[in-house]
Hints:
Blueprint: H1 3-15, H2 22-29, H3 33-45, E1 50-52, E2 55-57, H4 65-68, H5 73-85, E3 92-95, H6 99-106, E4 113-117, H7 120-126, E5 132-136, E6 140-142, E7 147-149, H8 151-158, E8 162-167, E9 171-172, E10 178-180, H9 186-194, E11 196-202, E12 214-217, E13 224-227, H10 233-241, E14 245-248, E15 251-252
Parallel strand pairs: 3-4, 3-8, 4-5, 8-11, 11-13, 13-14
Antiparallel strand pairs: 1-2, 6-7, 9-10, 10-12, 14-15
Amino acid sequence: xxxxxxxxxxxxxxxxxxxxxxxxxxxxxxxxxxxxxxxxxxxxxxxxxxxxxxxxxxxxxxxxxxxxxxxxxxxxxxxxxxxxxxxxxxxxxxxxxxxxxxxxxxxxxxxxxxxxxxxxxxxxxxxxxxxxxxxxxxxxxxxxxxxxxxxxxxxxxxxxxxxxxxxxxxxxxxxxxxxxxxxxxxxxxxxxxxxxxxxxxxxxxxxxxxxxxxxxxxxxxxxxxxxxxxxxxxxxxxxxxxxxxxxxxxxxxx
Length: 254
């Protein structure tokens, strides 16, 4: 395996919450621990990770859409299938940025809906579906993450209303705070919340607690959380105290 390909796989494993130890990475990639150590030194020199005793850690940061799209696809699809069943024909739906919203868009083909989004991949997925009235929000293009942001996007949202918002996140803190890794996306997400009747957070198991330094909203701004695995007790308690329904992709979490 070429070194460049190994480096990509190491970063993907670390960013998806996978093995961080040298021995685990060695076993997963089928190379010697010495090779992994050399790879980690090179990646640290490039500023892509930080070595720690026995392995490495990586800052999630602002990952390119194409890279994130390949992570935990079955889990995102399970969430997307359930979320799609919540929507009735004729309703208006706001789809946030991110890969889980994109997986949800794939479940909406053939439906009679209005879909509003700043997610360019959602737009591309639904552009040829004549049954869907598609509204693409304006704004400044973030090429790497395939989204539109800025005051133009926020102004568009102030003129619109949606029955549903399906919101993405990079992390949910034990207190129920919804976080994001990218400050520039936060005002758009908040404007989406204000423009919607019902707010549904789509969050796979890796998002508890996940990452993110910027607060998007508190649990009081959510109506439903759809996930693919049981939520830790502290977070679940915070959500339920705020009146949020926690759904385990297919059934109400007990």
